[in-house]
Design brief:
Blueprint lengths: L4 E4 L2 E4 L2 E4 L1 E5 L2 E6 L8 E4 L4 E4 L1 E3 L11 H8 L3 E6 L12 H6 L14 H9 L6 E7 H9 L8 H16 L4 E5 L10 H14 L2 E5 L8 H19 L5 E3 L6 H13 L4 E4 L6 E4 L7 H4 L3 H9 L1 H16 L8 H4 E6 L12 H8 L3 H11 L4 E5 L7 H8 L4 E2 L14 H16 L5 H15 L16 E4 L20 E6 L2 E5 L2 E2 L7 E2 L12
Parallel strand pairs: 1-6, 8-9, 9-10, 10-11, 10-23, 11-12, 12-13, 13-14, 14-18
Antiparallel strand pairs: 1-4, 2-3, 4-5, 7-19, 15-17, 16-17, 19-20, 20-21, 21-22
Protein backbone atom coordinates (compact mmCIF):
# COMPACT_ATOMS: atom_id res chain seq x y z
CA UNK A 1 0.00 0.00 0.00
CA UNK A 2 1.46 3.37 -1.00
CA UNK A 3 2.29 5.94 1.63
CA UNK A 4 -0.16 8.78 2.03
CA UNK A 5 1.33 12.26 1.67
CA UNK A 6 -0.05 14.93 3.95
CA UNK A 7 0.59 18.65 3.52
CA UNK A 8 -0.09 19.84 7.03
CA UNK A 9 -0.64 23.25 8.54
CA UNK A 10 -1.12 25.35 5.41
CA UNK A 11 -4.08 27.06 3.80
CA UNK A 12 -6.06 26.53 0.64
CA UNK A 13 -7.82 29.30 -1.22
CA UNK A 14 -11.58 29.56 -0.91
CA UNK A 15 -13.92 32.08 -2.47
CA UNK A 16 -13.31 34.43 0.45
CA UNK A 17 -9.56 33.91 0.70
CA UNK A 18 -7.18 31.55 2.51
CA UNK A 19 -8.73 28.80 4.64
CA UNK A 20 -6.66 26.71 7.04
CA UNK A 21 -6.67 23.13 5.74
CA UNK A 22 -4.52 20.05 5.48
CA UNK A 23 -4.30 18.30 2.12
CA UNK A 24 -3.75 14.57 1.74
CA UNK A 25 -2.57 12.85 -1.45
CA UNK A 26 -3.16 9.22 -2.32
CA UNK A 27 -2.45 7.48 -5.59
CA UNK A 28 -1.65 10.70 -7.39
CA UNK A 29 -4.92 12.39 -6.46
CA UNK A 30 -6.08 14.68 -3.70
CA UNK A 31 -7.93 12.53 -1.14
CA UNK A 32 -8.87 15.01 1.58
CA UNK A 33 -8.91 18.76 2.13
CA UNK A 34 -9.59 19.88 5.70
CA UNK A 35 -8.55 18.28 8.94
CA UNK A 36 -6.56 15.16 8.12
CA UNK A 37 -6.01 12.67 10.93
CA UNK A 38 -2.55 11.55 12.01
CA UNK A 39 -1.13 8.23 10.85
CA UNK A 40 2.45 7.23 11.71
CA UNK A 41 2.89 5.90 8.19
CA UNK A 42 2.11 9.25 6.57
CA UNK A 43 4.76 11.20 4.71
CA UNK A 44 4.10 14.61 6.27
CA UNK A 45 5.29 17.95 4.92
CA UNK A 46 4.86 20.92 7.23
CA UNK A 47 3.54 23.80 5.11
CA UNK A 48 2.60 26.10 7.96
CA UNK A 49 2.32 29.72 6.87
CA UNK A 50 2.11 28.75 3.20
CA UNK A 51 -0.69 28.33 0.69
CA UNK A 52 -1.39 25.08 -1.16
CA UNK A 53 -2.49 26.11 -4.66
CA UNK A 54 -3.38 24.09 -7.74
CA UNK A 55 -0.33 23.92 -9.99
CA UNK A 56 -0.20 26.68 -12.58
CA UNK A 57 -0.96 26.05 -16.25
CA UNK A 58 1.21 28.03 -18.66
CA UNK A 59 -1.25 28.65 -21.48
CA UNK A 60 1.48 29.68 -23.94
CA UNK A 61 4.86 27.97 -23.67
CA UNK A 62 7.75 27.30 -26.03
CA UNK A 63 9.27 24.55 -23.89
CA UNK A 64 8.13 21.97 -26.49
CA UNK A 65 11.55 20.39 -27.02
CA UNK A 66 12.99 21.28 -23.60
CA UNK A 67 10.73 19.42 -21.18
CA UNK A 68 13.63 17.16 -20.22
CA UNK A 69 16.11 20.02 -19.76
CA UNK A 70 16.87 20.37 -16.02
CA UNK A 71 17.49 24.13 -16.21
CA UNK A 72 14.19 24.73 -18.01
CA UNK A 73 12.09 22.53 -15.77
CA UNK A 74 13.70 23.99 -12.65
CA UNK A 75 12.77 27.49 -13.84
CA UNK A 76 9.17 26.38 -14.42
CA UNK A 77 8.81 24.53 -11.13
CA UNK A 78 10.24 27.44 -9.14
CA UNK A 79 7.29 29.45 -10.53
CA UNK A 80 4.76 26.76 -9.56
CA UNK A 81 4.11 25.72 -13.17
CA UNK A 82 3.08 22.07 -13.40
CA UNK A 83 1.62 22.00 -16.95
CA UNK A 84 2.43 23.80 -20.19
CA UNK A 85 0.49 24.12 -23.43
CA UNK A 86 2.89 23.44 -26.32
CA UNK A 87 2.51 23.55 -30.10
CA UNK A 88 2.06 27.31 -30.15
CA UNK A 89 2.08 29.94 -32.91
CA UNK A 90 1.37 27.47 -35.68
CA UNK A 91 4.85 25.89 -35.68
CA UNK A 92 6.01 22.83 -33.78
CA UNK A 93 7.28 19.32 -34.41
CA UNK A 94 4.17 17.23 -35.15
CA UNK A 95 2.84 16.27 -37.66
CA UNK A 96 5.72 15.28 -39.91
CA UNK A 97 9.31 14.53 -38.97
CA UNK A 98 9.89 17.72 -36.97
CA UNK A 99 12.45 19.10 -39.43
CA UNK A 100 10.54 22.24 -40.39
CA UNK A 101 10.03 23.38 -36.79
CA UNK A 102 13.62 22.55 -35.94
CA UNK A 103 14.81 24.72 -38.84
CA UNK A 104 12.42 27.67 -38.89
CA UNK A 105 11.78 27.85 -35.13
CA UNK A 106 15.35 26.97 -34.15
CA UNK A 107 15.67 30.14 -32.06
CA UNK A 108 12.31 29.57 -30.35
CA UNK A 109 11.76 25.84 -29.80
CA UNK A 110 15.09 24.32 -30.80
CA UNK A 111 15.45 20.65 -31.79
CA UNK A 112 13.41 17.97 -30.04
CA UNK A 113 15.57 15.35 -28.30
CA UNK A 114 13.47 12.37 -29.38
CA UNK A 115 10.59 13.24 -31.73
CA UNK A 116 11.27 12.06 -35.30
CA UNK A 117 7.71 11.48 -36.48
CA UNK A 118 4.44 9.90 -35.46
CA UNK A 119 2.34 13.01 -35.02
CA UNK A 120 0.70 14.34 -31.89
CA UNK A 121 0.44 10.84 -30.43
CA UNK A 122 4.21 10.45 -30.60
CA UNK A 123 4.86 13.92 -29.17
CA UNK A 124 2.56 13.30 -26.20
CA UNK A 125 3.99 9.83 -25.57
CA UNK A 126 7.49 11.33 -25.50
CA UNK A 127 6.44 13.46 -22.51
CA UNK A 128 5.13 10.54 -20.47
CA UNK A 129 7.62 9.71 -17.74
CA UNK A 130 10.34 11.89 -19.28
CA UNK A 131 9.73 15.22 -17.52
CA UNK A 132 8.63 16.57 -14.15
CA UNK A 133 6.20 18.81 -16.09
CA UNK A 134 2.96 17.91 -17.88
CA UNK A 135 2.41 19.12 -21.45
CA UNK A 136 -0.63 19.43 -23.67
CA UNK A 137 -0.25 19.88 -27.42
CA UNK A 138 -1.92 22.03 -30.05
CA UNK A 139 -1.79 20.91 -33.68
CA UNK A 140 0.23 23.71 -35.35
CA UNK A 141 -1.51 24.92 -38.50
CA UNK A 142 1.68 26.20 -40.12
CA UNK A 143 3.36 22.83 -39.76
CA UNK A 144 0.25 21.18 -41.18
CA UNK A 145 0.38 23.51 -44.19
CA UNK A 146 4.07 22.82 -44.69
CA UNK A 147 3.38 19.08 -44.74
CA UNK A 148 0.79 19.49 -47.51
CA UNK A 149 1.75 22.66 -49.42
CA UNK A 150 5.46 22.90 -48.73
CA UNK A 151 6.89 26.41 -48.80
CA UNK A 152 4.51 27.75 -51.42
CA UNK A 153 2.62 30.95 -50.73
CA UNK A 154 -0.37 30.12 -52.96
CA UNK A 155 -3.90 29.75 -51.58
CA UNK A 156 -4.57 26.13 -50.72
CA UNK A 157 -6.66 24.19 -53.20
CA UNK A 158 -9.77 22.28 -52.14
CA UNK A 159 -7.78 19.05 -52.18
CA UNK A 160 -4.99 20.58 -50.10
CA UNK A 161 -7.53 21.85 -47.57
CA UNK A 162 -9.02 18.38 -47.28
CA UNK A 163 -5.60 16.84 -46.74
CA UNK A 164 -4.69 19.46 -44.13
CA UNK A 165 -8.02 19.00 -42.33
CA UNK A 166 -7.38 15.25 -42.23
CA UNK A 167 -4.02 15.85 -40.50
CA UNK A 168 -5.75 18.09 -37.96
CA UNK A 169 -8.44 15.48 -37.34
CA UNK A 170 -5.73 12.85 -36.84
CA UNK A 171 -4.03 15.05 -34.24
CA UNK A 172 -7.31 15.67 -32.43
CA UNK A 173 -8.02 11.93 -32.36
CA UNK A 174 -4.60 11.41 -30.77
CA UNK A 175 -5.48 13.76 -27.90
CA UNK A 176 -4.38 17.19 -29.10
CA UNK A 177 -6.16 20.03 -27.32
CA UNK A 178 -6.84 22.12 -30.41
CA UNK A 179 -5.23 23.99 -33.29
CA UNK A 180 -2.77 26.89 -33.18
CA UNK A 181 -1.96 29.52 -35.79
CA UNK A 182 0.90 32.01 -36.07
CA UNK A 183 -0.31 34.44 -38.69
CA UNK A 184 2.77 36.67 -38.70
CA UNK A 185 5.10 33.67 -39.19
CA UNK A 186 5.54 31.54 -42.29
CA UNK A 187 3.70 29.72 -43.62
CA UNK A 188 0.89 31.08 -41.42
CA UNK A 189 1.16 34.47 -43.09
CA UNK A 190 0.06 32.73 -46.32
CA UNK A 191 -3.06 31.15 -44.76
CA UNK A 192 -6.30 33.05 -45.30
CA UNK A 193 -9.34 32.94 -43.04
CA UNK A 194 -11.19 30.42 -45.21
CA UNK A 195 -8.27 27.99 -45.08
CA UNK A 196 -7.95 28.36 -41.32
CA UNK A 197 -11.70 27.83 -40.86
CA UNK A 198 -11.44 24.59 -42.83
CA UNK A 199 -8.73 23.41 -40.44
CA UNK A 200 -10.78 24.51 -37.43
CA UNK A 201 -13.85 22.50 -38.45
CA UNK A 202 -12.42 19.17 -37.16
CA UNK A 203 -11.30 21.01 -34.02
CA UNK A 204 -14.84 22.23 -33.34
CA UNK A 205 -16.25 18.79 -34.14
CA UNK A 206 -13.90 17.18 -31.62
CA UNK A 207 -14.60 19.77 -28.92
CA UNK A 208 -11.18 21.42 -29.04
CA UNK A 209 -10.04 25.05 -29.00
CA UNK A 210 -8.63 27.38 -31.67
CA UNK A 211 -5.54 29.21 -30.34
CA UNK A 212 -4.23 32.09 -32.42
CA UNK A 213 -1.32 34.45 -32.73
CA UNK A 214 -3.42 36.94 -34.65
CA UNK A 215 -2.43 38.53 -37.92
CA UNK A 216 -0.92 41.99 -38.04
CA UNK A 217 1.22 42.55 -34.98
CA UNK A 218 -1.45 43.31 -32.34
CA UNK A 219 -1.31 46.77 -30.72
CA UNK A 220 -3.23 49.27 -32.91
CA UNK A 221 -3.96 46.52 -35.48
CA UNK A 222 -5.96 44.44 -33.03
CA UNK A 223 -9.40 45.08 -34.55
CA UNK A 224 -8.46 43.43 -37.85
CA UNK A 225 -7.19 40.32 -36.08
CA UNK A 226 -10.32 40.05 -33.97
CA UNK A 227 -12.58 40.48 -37.01
CA UNK A 228 -10.77 37.59 -38.69
CA UNK A 229 -11.27 35.42 -35.60
CA UNK A 230 -15.01 36.09 -35.70
CA UNK A 231 -15.15 35.01 -39.34
CA UNK A 232 -13.12 31.85 -38.67
CA UNK A 233 -15.25 30.87 -35.68
CA UNK A 234 -18.47 31.47 -37.60
CA UNK A 235 -17.39 29.55 -40.72
CA UNK A 236 -15.94 26.64 -38.72
CA UNK A 237 -19.16 26.30 -36.73
CA UNK A 238 -21.21 26.25 -39.93
CA UNK A 239 -19.09 23.43 -41.33
CA UNK A 240 -18.74 21.41 -38.13
CA UNK A 241 -22.18 22.00 -36.65
CA UNK A 242 -20.50 22.75 -33.33
CA UNK A 243 -19.18 25.97 -31.76
CA UNK A 244 -15.48 26.78 -31.89
CA UNK A 245 -14.01 28.05 -28.60
CA UNK A 246 -11.19 30.53 -29.17
CA UNK A 247 -8.10 31.53 -27.24
CA UNK A 248 -6.06 34.61 -28.26
CA UNK A 249 -2.33 34.22 -27.65
CA UNK A 250 -0.21 36.88 -25.93
CA UNK A 251 -2.91 39.52 -26.37
CA UNK A 252 -1.17 42.84 -25.81
CA UNK A 253 -2.48 46.29 -26.66
CA UNK A 254 -3.58 49.41 -24.81
CA UNK A 255 -6.15 48.35 -22.24
CA UNK A 256 -9.02 50.27 -23.82
CA UNK A 257 -8.33 48.69 -27.21
CA UNK A 258 -7.92 45.20 -25.82
CA UNK A 259 -10.98 45.28 -23.58
CA UNK A 260 -13.05 46.76 -26.39
CA UNK A 261 -12.07 43.95 -28.74
CA UNK A 262 -12.83 41.31 -26.13
CA UNK A 263 -16.29 42.87 -25.89
CA UNK A 264 -16.56 42.63 -29.69
CA UNK A 265 -15.83 38.89 -29.51
CA UNK A 266 -18.47 38.45 -26.83
CA UNK A 267 -21.00 40.48 -28.84
CA UNK A 268 -20.32 38.22 -31.82
CA UNK A 269 -21.11 35.16 -29.72
CA UNK A 270 -17.55 33.82 -29.66
CA UNK A 271 -16.53 31.95 -26.51
CA UNK A 272 -13.08 33.48 -26.08
CA UNK A 273 -10.26 33.55 -23.57
CA UNK A 274 -6.77 35.03 -23.88
CA UNK A 275 -3.36 35.05 -22.28
CA UNK A 276 -1.12 38.05 -21.59
CA UNK A 277 2.14 38.20 -19.66
CA UNK A 278 3.20 40.83 -17.08
CA UNK A 279 5.96 42.47 -19.11
CA UNK A 280 5.97 45.38 -21.54
CA UNK A 281 8.41 43.87 -24.06
CA UNK A 282 7.99 40.90 -26.38
CA UNK A 283 10.36 38.38 -27.92
CA UNK A 284 10.38 36.74 -31.34
CA UNK A 285 12.53 35.75 -34.29
CA UNK A 286 14.81 38.60 -35.35
CA UNK A 287 13.86 37.97 -38.97
CA UNK A 288 10.12 38.26 -38.45
CA UNK A 289 9.86 42.09 -38.36
CA UNK A 290 12.72 42.59 -40.85
CA UNK A 291 12.68 39.98 -43.62
CA UNK A 292 10.12 39.69 -46.40
CA UNK A 293 8.00 36.57 -45.83
CA UNK A 294 9.11 35.12 -49.17
CA UNK A 295 12.71 35.13 -47.90
CA UNK A 296 11.82 33.70 -44.48
CA UNK A 297 9.93 30.89 -46.24
CA UNK A 298 13.02 29.74 -48.16
CA UNK A 299 15.15 26.81 -47.00
CA UNK A 300 17.86 28.23 -44.81
CA UNK A 301 20.67 27.76 -47.31
CA UNK A 302 18.71 29.64 -49.97
CA UNK A 303 17.73 32.42 -47.55
CA UNK A 304 21.36 32.86 -46.50
CA UNK A 305 22.36 33.06 -50.15
CA UNK A 306 19.89 35.91 -50.64
CA UNK A 307 21.21 37.70 -47.54
CA UNK A 308 24.79 37.32 -48.76
CA UNK A 309 24.07 38.49 -52.30
CA UNK A 310 25.35 42.09 -52.74
CA UNK A 311 22.86 42.65 -55.55
CA UNK A 312 19.97 41.91 -53.18
CA UNK A 313 21.26 43.83 -50.19
CA UNK A 314 19.76 47.21 -51.15
CA UNK A 315 16.34 45.60 -51.55
CA UNK A 316 16.61 43.75 -48.22
CA UNK A 317 17.78 46.91 -46.49
CA UNK A 318 14.86 48.95 -47.85
CA UNK A 319 12.25 46.29 -47.05
CA UNK A 320 13.61 45.63 -43.56
CA UNK A 321 13.73 49.28 -42.55
CA UNK A 322 10.23 49.86 -43.93
CA UNK A 323 8.75 46.79 -42.21
CA UNK A 324 10.28 47.70 -38.85
CA UNK A 325 9.48 51.42 -38.98
CA UNK A 326 5.87 50.75 -40.02
CA UNK A 327 5.36 47.99 -37.45
CA UNK A 328 2.49 48.55 -35.03
CA UNK A 329 4.84 47.67 -32.17
CA UNK A 330 8.24 49.13 -33.13
CA UNK A 331 8.05 52.26 -35.28
CA UNK A 332 10.77 54.71 -36.39
CA UNK A 333 13.02 54.11 -33.36
CA UNK A 334 13.18 50.36 -34.02
CA UNK A 335 17.00 50.05 -33.79
CA UNK A 336 16.77 51.12 -30.13
CA UNK A 337 13.86 48.78 -29.41
CA UNK A 338 15.34 45.47 -30.59
CA UNK A 339 17.72 43.74 -28.17
CA UNK A 340 19.57 40.66 -29.36
CA UNK A 341 18.59 37.59 -27.34
CA UNK A 342 19.97 34.60 -29.27
CA UNK A 343 22.64 34.54 -31.97
CA UNK A 344 23.61 31.05 -33.10
CA UNK A 345 26.89 32.14 -34.71
CA UNK A 346 29.88 32.52 -32.35
CA UNK A 347 31.32 35.43 -34.35
CA UNK A 348 28.78 38.13 -33.39
CA UNK A 349 27.93 36.52 -30.04
CA UNK A 350 29.49 39.55 -28.33
CA UNK A 351 26.29 41.42 -29.25
CA UNK A 352 24.01 39.42 -26.96
CA UNK A 353 22.08 41.82 -24.74
CA UNK A 354 22.81 44.86 -26.92
CA UNK A 355 20.28 46.82 -28.94
CA UNK A 356 20.71 46.77 -32.70
CA UNK A 357 21.80 50.40 -32.63
CA UNK A 358 24.44 49.81 -29.95
CA UNK A 359 25.72 46.67 -31.69
CA UNK A 360 25.85 48.44 -35.07
CA UNK A 361 27.79 51.34 -33.61
CA UNK A 362 30.32 48.95 -32.13
CA UNK A 363 30.62 47.16 -35.49
CA UNK A 364 30.82 50.47 -37.40
CA UNK A 365 27.83 49.69 -39.61
CA UNK A 366 24.12 50.49 -39.81
CA UNK A 367 21.48 48.72 -37.67
CA UNK A 368 19.79 47.10 -40.67
CA UNK A 369 23.11 45.89 -42.11
CA UNK A 370 24.19 44.51 -38.76
CA UNK A 371 20.88 42.66 -38.42
CA UNK A 372 21.15 41.21 -41.93
CA UNK A 373 24.78 40.19 -41.33
CA UNK A 374 23.88 38.47 -38.05
CA UNK A 375 20.95 36.65 -39.68
CA UNK A 376 23.23 35.40 -42.45
CA UNK A 377 26.01 34.34 -40.09
CA UNK A 378 23.53 32.46 -37.89
CA UNK A 379 21.56 30.90 -40.73
CA UNK A 380 18.54 32.86 -39.47
CA UNK A 381 18.77 31.32 -35.98
CA UNK A 382 18.39 34.60 -34.09
CA UNK A 383 15.83 35.96 -31.66
CA UNK A 384 15.35 39.37 -30.10
CA UNK A 385 13.56 41.06 -27.22
CA UNK A 386 11.26 43.71 -28.65
CA UNK A 387 10.24 46.88 -26.84
CA UNK A 388 6.97 48.61 -27.75
CA UNK A 389 6.23 52.24 -28.51
CA UNK A 390 3.65 52.55 -25.73
CA UNK A 391 4.75 50.42 -22.78
CA UNK A 392 1.93 49.72 -20.35
CA UNK A 393 2.13 50.61 -16.68
CA UNK A 394 1.44 47.96 -14.07
CA UNK A 395 -1.87 49.67 -13.37
CA UNK A 396 -2.91 49.36 -17.00
CA UNK A 397 -1.77 45.73 -17.14
CA UNK A 398 -3.86 45.10 -14.02
CA UNK A 399 -6.95 46.28 -15.91
CA UNK A 400 -6.22 43.69 -18.59
CA UNK A 401 -5.40 40.90 -16.16
CA UNK A 402 -8.58 41.55 -14.19
CA UNK A 403 -10.73 40.54 -17.15
CA UNK A 404 -12.31 37.19 -16.23
CA UNK A 405 -11.27 35.64 -19.56
CA UNK A 406 -7.54 36.22 -18.91
CA UNK A 407 -5.28 33.22 -18.33
CA UNK A 408 -1.66 33.09 -17.33
CA UNK A 409 0.76 32.61 -20.21
CA UNK A 410 4.48 33.30 -20.35
CA UNK A 411 5.25 32.92 -24.07
CA UNK A 412 8.47 31.71 -22.50
CA UNK A 413 11.43 31.16 -24.84
CA UNK A 414 14.33 29.48 -23.06
CA UNK A 415 16.85 29.43 -25.91
CA UNK A 416 19.52 32.11 -26.04
CA UNK A 417 22.33 33.72 -24.11
CA UNK A 418 20.13 36.70 -23.20
CA UNK A 419 16.48 35.55 -23.33
CA UNK A 420 13.40 37.44 -22.24
CA UNK A 421 12.93 37.21 -18.43
CA UNK A 422 9.33 36.07 -18.87
CA UNK A 423 10.51 32.46 -19.25
CA UNK A 424 11.90 32.42 -15.71
CA UNK A 425 9.66 34.95 -14.00
CA UNK A 426 6.12 35.25 -15.34
CA UNK A 427 4.08 33.34 -12.77
CA UNK A 428 6.00 34.54 -9.74
CA UNK A 429 5.66 38.07 -11.11
CA UNK A 430 1.88 37.72 -11.31
CA UNK A 431 1.82 36.79 -7.62
CA UNK A 432 4.39 39.30 -6.44
CA UNK A 433 3.20 42.34 -8.37
CA UNK A 434 -0.50 41.86 -8.98
CA UNK A 435 -1.50 40.04 -5.78
CA UNK A 436 0.88 41.25 -3.11
CA UNK A 437 2.14 44.64 -4.28
CA UNK A 438 -0.84 46.12 -6.15
CA UNK A 439 -3.71 44.11 -4.71
CA UNK A 440 -5.23 43.95 -8.20
CA UNK A 441 -5.91 40.23 -7.71
CA UNK A 442 -7.04 38.38 -4.64
CA UNK A 443 -5.56 34.95 -4.08
CA UNK A 444 -8.82 33.49 -5.37
CA UNK A 445 -8.36 35.56 -8.53
CA UNK A 446 -4.84 34.17 -8.92
CA UNK A 447 -6.17 30.61 -8.75
CA UNK A 448 -8.82 31.45 -11.36
CA UNK A 449 -6.43 33.08 -13.84
CA UNK A 450 -3.41 30.81 -13.40
CA UNK A 451 -4.96 27.40 -12.71
CA UNK A 452 -8.71 26.94 -12.89
CA UNK A 453 -9.58 28.81 -16.10
CA UNK A 454 -6.69 27.52 -18.24
CA UNK A 455 -7.38 23.96 -17.06
CA UNK A 456 -11.00 24.39 -18.11
CA UNK A 457 -10.19 26.18 -21.38
CA UNK A 458 -7.83 23.42 -22.54
CA UNK A 459 -9.82 20.50 -21.19
CA UNK A 460 -7.25 19.34 -18.63
CA UNK A 461 -9.44 16.91 -16.78
CA UNK A 462 -9.40 17.06 -12.96
CA UNK A 463 -6.75 19.76 -12.84
CA UNK A 464 -6.84 23.36 -11.67
CA UNK A 465 -8.37 22.84 -8.21
CA UNK A 466 -7.44 21.78 -4.68
CA UNK A 467 -10.34 19.46 -4.05
CA UNK A 468 -10.92 15.76 -3.33
CA UNK A 469 -10.68 13.78 -6.54
CA UNK A 470 -8.53 16.33 -8.37
CA UNK A 471 -5.13 15.33 -9.71
CA UNK A 472 -2.51 16.34 -7.16
CA UNK A 473 -0.67 18.93 -9.24
CA UNK A 474 0.12 21.35 -6.43
CA UNK A 475 2.37 24.34 -5.69
CA UNK A 476 3.16 25.33 -2.11
CA UNK A 477 3.51 29.12 -2.07
CA UNK A 478 4.93 31.43 0.58
CA UNK A 479 2.66 34.46 0.08
CA UNK A 480 5.08 36.89 1.70
CA UNK A 481 8.19 35.70 -0.15
CA UNK A 482 7.12 34.67 -3.66
CA UNK A 483 8.87 36.91 -6.20
CA UNK A 484 10.39 36.96 -9.64
CA UNK A 485 14.11 37.73 -9.79
CA UNK A 486 14.60 37.61 -13.57
CA UNK A 487 15.14 41.01 -15.18
CA UNK A 488 15.99 42.24 -18.68
CA UNK A 489 19.60 42.54 -17.48
CA UNK A 490 19.67 39.18 -15.62
CA UNK A 491 17.01 37.14 -17.44
CA UNK A 492 17.83 33.67 -16.14
CA UNK A 493 17.42 34.29 -12.41
CA UNK A 494 14.92 31.77 -11.02
CA UNK A 495 11.96 32.77 -8.87
CA UNK A 496 11.78 32.43 -5.10
CA UNK A 497 9.01 31.66 -2.64
CA UNK A 498 7.76 28.41 -4.21
CA UNK A 499 9.92 25.63 -2.83
CA UNK A 500 7.69 22.55 -2.94
CA UNK A 501 5.76 21.33 -5.97
CA UNK A 502 3.88 18.10 -6.69
CA UNK A 503 2.93 16.68 -10.09
CA UNK A 504 0.55 13.75 -10.11
CA UNK A 505 1.10 13.41 -6.37
CA UNK A 506 4.87 13.08 -6.78
CA UNK A 507 7.15 15.66 -5.19
CA UNK A 508 9.17 17.17 -8.03
CA UNK A 509 10.53 20.23 -6.18
CA UNK A 510 11.69 19.92 -2.58
CA UNK A 511 13.16 22.82 -0.60
CA UNK A 512 13.59 24.69 -3.88
CA UNK A 513 15.47 21.99 -5.78
CA UNK A 514 14.26 19.36 -8.28
CA UNK A 515 13.97 15.87 -6.86
CA UNK A 516 14.73 14.12 -10.13
CA UNK A 517 11.31 12.50 -10.28
CA UNK A 518 9.71 12.46 -13.75
CA UNK A 519 5.95 12.00 -13.32
CA UNK A 520 4.96 14.42 -16.11
CA UNK A 521 2.37 13.30 -18.61
CA UNK A 522 1.34 14.21 -22.11
CA UNK A 523 -2.08 15.70 -21.41
CA UNK A 524 -4.65 14.33 -23.82
CA UNK A 525 -7.93 16.13 -24.43
CA UNK A 526 -10.53 14.61 -22.14
CA UNK A 527 -13.60 15.51 -24.22
CA UNK A 528 -15.59 18.49 -25.51
CA UNK A 529 -14.69 21.72 -23.77
CA UNK A 530 -17.15 23.41 -21.45
CA UNK A 531 -17.70 27.11 -21.97
CA UNK A 532 -14.94 29.14 -20.38
CA UNK A 533 -17.43 30.71 -18.02
CA UNK A 534 -16.71 33.30 -15.41
CA UNK A 535 -15.58 33.06 -11.78
Amino acid sequence: MSTRIVLRGGSVIGADGPVRADVSIEGGDIAQVGTVGHDPADDVLDVSGRFVLPGFVDAHSHADGLLGDPEVTRALLRQGVTSVIAGQDGVSYAPGDGAYATEYFAAINGPHPSYRGGGAASFLSAVDGASPINAGYLVPAGTVRFEVCGRHDHPASDDERRRMAALVAEGMAAGALGLSTGLDYVPGVFQDAAEIAALCAPVAAAGGVYVTHMRGGYESNTAAGIAEIVDIARWAQQEAGAPLPVHVSHFHADADILLGQLAALEDAGVDATFDAYPYTRGCTLLGMPLLPPEVSALPRAEAVAVLADPSRRAWLREVGERRASQSASLGPDWPDMITLAHIASPGPAWAHGLTLRAAAERAATTPIDFALDVLAASWLECSAVMAVRSPRSSTELARVFSHPAHTGGSDGIFIGAHPHPRAAGTFARYLREFVRDLGAWSWADAVHHLSALPARRFGLERRGAVAPGAVADLAVVDPSAVADLATYERPRETAVGIDDVFVGGVRVLAAGEPTGALPGRGLRRAGPLPAAGRP
